[in-house]
Structures are given as C-alpha cells and as structure tokens.
Amino acid sequence: MTTLSIFLVLVVLCHTTIASVFSILNNCSYTVWVGAVPGGGQRLNSYQTWSLYVPSGTSGGRIWPRTNCTFDGSGQGRCETGDCNGSLRCQSYGNPPNTLAEYTLNQFGNLDFFDISLMDGFNVPTVFKPNSVGCSRGISCASDIKGECPVELQAPGGCNNPCTVFKTDGYCCLSGGCRPTYLSKFFKERCPHAYSYPMDDQNSTFTCPGGTNYDVVFCP
User: What DSSP string runs through 26-69?
Assistant: First the structure.
C-alpha cells in the first residue's frame, strides 16, 4: 500500500466516514502507470494490484491507464497516453487518449454513480465493476478499439474521441444538444455500455449503494 493510500485510510477513520476501496489490477502483458484523481498514481507491472481508498462523498473521481511512461527519481517525466502534466502522482486529469473509469460516491439517494467513458478516447481495454454490497452489474470495454481505430482518430498508443480531434459542436455538443455520429457509433458498437458522446448518459451511467467497493481491471 502506498503512503498516500495509508493517509487516506487514516483520514477516513478519524472522521468515521465510510470509504470505498478500488482494487486496480493490471492484467496486461505490459506495464501500466495508473492515474487517479483523487489518489495520484502508481506503476503497476503485469498482474500487480493497487488498493485505492476513496472517502465517501467524493465527486468527479477518475481512474485511467497511462502507457509508455518514463519517470525520473523525482517522479517527473511523460507518458505517451494519459499523461498528467508529466507527473507520476497525478494532481490533474490525463491527456487523451485514455480510457476513463469515472465515479461519484454516495450522492443523491445515497448512491454511487459510475461509468466507463470514451470521451477522452481509448488506450487500454478496461472493466469497471462493483464487488460488494450485493451490487453486481459492471461495465466492460474490452474490444480492440485501438486496433480498429478509424484513420482520422488514430493517435500514438490509442484512439481519440472525435471531439478531441475536430472540436466541433456536432461532436462535442457545445451548444448543449447533439446526436450520435458515425464516429461516436464506432465506439458505441464496440463498447455499448460506455459513454461514446456527451449526451450518452441515460444508457451509460450505473449506480450502486454508497459504500460499495469496486474493481478496475486493465486488459480483462
């Protein structure tokens, strides 16, 4: 367990606040540098796990895989995908393309809300699933999106979302309303339960009771 994870546990215990545990497994044949806000980051070699403790009430949480990273002894460097300002311990969200596991804990109705989002594109196949409190329905995005990526969305190490590339209203819903496009449908056909464009929430947001624990698995 990292120093940051221990600190989060102590904070939770001192305030008698329930924490959710995110068990993050790198099941890939290559190293993944996890990015997490809150939580920072962690290098995971193949088949290594990181247990991340997140306090109840956290909103806007993200966990994502970073690939092809190089860091020096001070934790500074860069990643080909998912880079967070060149830092091993992320304080900000990652740069596209990266597959996102997003969550908000113990909110309206004492529910957790979670999803896999492809709004920042795709770099590593990911499963995001609950593992406690009787909640069992998870989300899988394990298709070969990177290998089948349309030419106009291809990026080193991953596949961009069309909003990242074109930045237009039709792809980004800048005016508050839009419909699926043939490029967003590319993602939806391969990962039907993941966010593919900004108005996709009614089909792609899942809930569990507050206090649920979760697994995030890369290369399931």
Answer: E-SSS-EEEEEETTEEEEE-TT-EEEEEEETT--SEEEEEEEEE
